[in-house]
Structures are given as C-alpha cells and as structure tokens.
Design goal:
Length: 134
Amino acid sequence: MRIVLDTNVFVSGVFFSGPPYEILRAWSHGKVQIVMSEEILEEYRRVGEELSEQFPEVDLEPMLALLVTEGQICLPTELPGPVCDDPDDDKFLACAVAGKVKVIVSGDKHLLKVSGYRGIDVLRPRKFLDQYMT
C-alpha cells in the first residue's frame, strides 16, 4: 500500500514511540510504501532538524537517507486552487494525486477536513493502523 505521511507523522515516528513509529516500522519492513515530493522531503528534514536541537540523542539522518533510497519521490500535480484552509498543506494532496495514493496519514485538522478530496482518505495514524495494518 502506498501512503503519504504528513510531516508531523514522519517526524513523530522518528523521535517518539506510538502509532507514527509503528507506521515507519511497517514501512521499513516493506508493508507500506511512502510517497513524497521533494518539497515534502525538505519539510521533513527542516522540521526534523529543528526537533533534533531538543532531542540531540536522536539521529534523524539515517531515516532521511533510507527515505531517499526506499521512498518514492514524485513530481506533484498542480491543484486547480487552494484545497485546505492552510494552503501549505496542499502539497500533501498534490503529492497523493500525482502518486495515485489513496491515503494520507495525518493528524492535521486542515487535511482531515478535506478527507475524500479526489478519493483520497486522510486518516489519523491510529485509525490508519487499525484499518490497514491489523
């Protein structure tokens, strides 16, 4: 199954335990494929580096390196206009459309609000695990 992870899910999975970590573990075991754009990858890196300052014992680089080699990078589709109340979140939808991904995993209220856009479900991490990984 191919999924798009919003930045907070990816970064939470690297730095903390819980559902986001379980999703990254499923990915590292080949159970899901992470699809992202260059813009999303850069946001993962930027936000992860900011969090690294608070948690210097966590090394973000190995996970980013694995993501670059094992994840799928796609060129995002241009959306006809803003979809989310926060237009910065549209990059996840544009990536999902371009990558023919049917699920975005996110806890972001703006993305959750537009679940169903072009047949793309936006699911919280726990709900994604319960629905697809059990």
